[in-house]
Amino acid sequence: MILGIGVDVVDIARFRDALERTPALRERLFTEVERDLAIQSLAARFAAKEAVAKALGAPRGLSHLEAEVRRDRSGRPELCVTGEAAEVARRLGVQRWHVSLSHDGGVAMAYVIAEG
């Protein structure tokens, strides 16, 4: 059963400019595993983090570091949710996450489904 859906889009150039303007932002938004990726991938991962929050109902107190996008052995993106985000997901009954990332034409997007 679908318990939550989140989608987010990010203007890649605007996102790049924000990271260049505020270098510390990279560490506040991305885990060590994510930080060194290309800007398009970072923008898509930021969209995924925002989509996770939306899928959970946008509760207060979540950190962007609590949602990490990794690649499984086949290269598919997968979510690892920790901390307060994981606790909210547990309370909602989320047992599995689905994530899709894309970037083209200067825009990155992510679609997240929380399944129970």
Automatic annotation (TrEMBL):
Compartment(s) where it occurs, according to its Swiss-Prot or TrEMBL record: Cytoplasm
Catalytic activity: apo-[ACP] + CoA = holo-[ACP] + adenosine 3',5'-bisphosphate + H(+)
Pfam families, per the entry: ACPS
Cofactor: Mg(2+)
GO molecular function: holo-[acyl-carrier-protein] synthase activity
Residues engaged in binding Mg(2+): D8, E50
EC assignment: 2.7.8.7
UniProt keyword annotations, A-Z: Cytoplasm, Fatty acid biosynthesis, Fatty acid metabolism, Lipid biosynthesis, Lipid metabolism, Magnesium, Metal-binding, Transferase
Superkingdom per UniProt: Bacteria
InterPro entries given in the database record: 4-PPantetheinyl_Trfase_dom (IPR008278), 4-PPantetheinyl_Trfase_dom_sf (IPR037143), ACPS (IPR002582), Ppantetheine-prot_Trfase_dom (IPR004568)
All copies of domain 4'-phosphopantetheinyl transferase, residue ranges: 4-101
Family: Belongs to the P-Pant transferase superfamily. AcpS family.
Role, per record: Transfers the 4'-phosphopantetheine moiety from coenzyme A to a Ser of acyl-carrier-protein.
Protein name in the entry: Holo-[acyl-carrier-protein] synthase
